[in-house]
Amino acid sequence: MAKLVFCDGNQIQLLHTGKEFFASLIAAIEQAQHEVLLETYIYANDQTAQLITQALCDAAKRGLCVQVIIDWIGGGKQATQLQSVFLNAGVECRLFNPWFKRGLARTHRKLAVIDQSIGFVGGINIIDDCVTDDGKNTPLPYPRWDFAVRLSGTLVPALHKEVTAQWLKMGKLQLLQRLKLAVNLRKPPMSATHHFSEAALVIRDNLRNRSTIQKAYLKALGSARETAILANPYFAPGRKIRNALIQAARRGVDVSLLLGVGDFEFQDAVAQSYYPKLLASGVKIYEYHKTKLHAKVAVIDHNWATVGSSNFDGLSLFVNHEANIVVLDPVFARDLQRHLQQGLLDATKIDPHCVIRLSWPKRLKHRLAYWFYRIIMRIATLGQYR
C-alpha cells in the first residue's frame, strides 16, 4: 500500500451540496489561465451539467488545455454524444473503461484541477442537485445531501499528478512508460513552511493503492477516543470496518452511522442485515429519508475528517477507482461535524428493540440479501471482500 502522507500549507473550503460546489467550480474554470482537468463518474445532460459543459468549452476556445474523463457507465447513453460535443469545441475527452475492456473497475472519482493551483475533491457528480441520479430524473424533495472541498496549497500538485496519470493510463503507454509513471506517483507531496491545514489525498486503485482508503478509516477508528460520525449511502463494508466500528463503540466511543436509504431495496436489505450486531455493540444507526443522501464523509474525535467518493461497499473498497481527502484540522472538522449533526437530527434513529423484534420473514430477507451480496462481491473482488 502507498504510504499516506500528510502535508501542511493547505487552504481547504468545505462545499455543501451542488449549489456551492458548481458555483465554485464554474468560477474557477472561468478564471483559469492555462489548464482545466476534470474527472467524474456521472456526467448528465441536464441544465446544471450544461453550465459546466459551456464553461469547459469556453475555456478551450480561450486556448486552454482542457481534459475531461467520464466513466463509460456513469456517463450513460449520452457519454459518446457528450464526447463529440467536447471534441468539436476543442476539449479533449476520454471515456473510462468502455465495454469493460480493462476489467470491472469504474472511475468513481470526482476530481478537478485548475491551473495546477486549485483542486476539487468530493462526492458530487456533474448532475442537477434536485433530481435522482438513477437515469429516471425523478424530482427530489430537497437538494441531494453531498459534499466536496475546494483546496489550494501543497496538496494540489499531488492531485494534479493523479488526474494526469489517469489520463495518460487511458491512452496508449508502453510498459516502460507505465513503470516510470508509477514511480513518479510514489513521490510524496511537498510540505510548506507555514501551516494552514494538514491534509492527505487518499486514492484507491487496483495497483499500489488497493486498500488505502479502507486502511485510513481503520487507523482513524482504531485510535478514536471520543466520537465518530460517519455518513454513507451504500453501507456494506467488509468485516474489518464492521469490527473497527464495533470495537470503537465497545471502548466507549460515541459511534454514529448516518446511512442513505431508499435507493435500492436490495442494498437496504444488505445494510440492515448488519444492524443487529452493530446496535448490540453500542453503534448508533440513523436512516436518512429527507432526500437523497450521497455524502461519503466522516469526522472522528473533532480533528480527523474525510470527504470523498468512496462508499462503504465492496465496489468502492475493493474494485473501483476512488478518491478521498483526509484533513487534520479541528476548524474544518467542526464545520463538517455541524452538517453531520444536522443530518442526524433530520434522520430516523433505529431502535435496537425494534430490530430485535423483526418478523422472521424480514430477518430471512436480510440474511439472504447478505449472503447473495457476499458471494457476488467475493467473485468480483477475487476473494478480497470479506
From TrEMBL:
PROSITE patterns: PLD. GO terms for biological process: cardiolipin biosynthetic process. Its EC number is 2.7.8.-. Keywords: Cell membrane, Lipid biosynthesis, Lipid metabolism, Membrane, Phospholipid biosynthesis, Phospholipid metabolism, Transferase. The keyword GTP-binding does not apply. It is a peripheral membrane protein. Residues 103-130, 289-316 form the PLD phosphodiesterase domain. It is an enzyme of class 2 (transferase). Its main location: membrane. Gene3D superfamilies: Endonuclease Chain A (3.30.870.10). GO terms for molecular function: cardiolipin synthase activity. The active site is at residues 108, 110, 115, 294, 296, 301. Signal peptide: none annotated. This is Cardiolipin synthase B. The lineage of its organism: Bacteria, Pseudomonadati, Pseudomonadota, Betaproteobacteria, Burkholderiales. The gene is clsB.
